[in-house]
Amino acid sequence: MTEIKSVEIRCLTCGTWFPSPVFIGTLEMLESAQMSGNMAQCPNGHMTPCNKENMRARGPDGGFIGNDTV
Fold it and tell me: 62 with 27: CB under 8 angstroms?
């Protein structure tokens, strides 16, 4: 199992990246997780979804990047 070193969320309003308030231990757990309806507040005060689509995770051997991260 690949341990996750960092998980970040991209605010869909302003584009700011910030640390995820949701802890995920491994990339395998992230891939199998069904995350929807979660919200987080970005450093600029916007409420944004906290789902896999706007999330990136980094591990020592790779990572994950969601569809809404560009």
Answer: yes
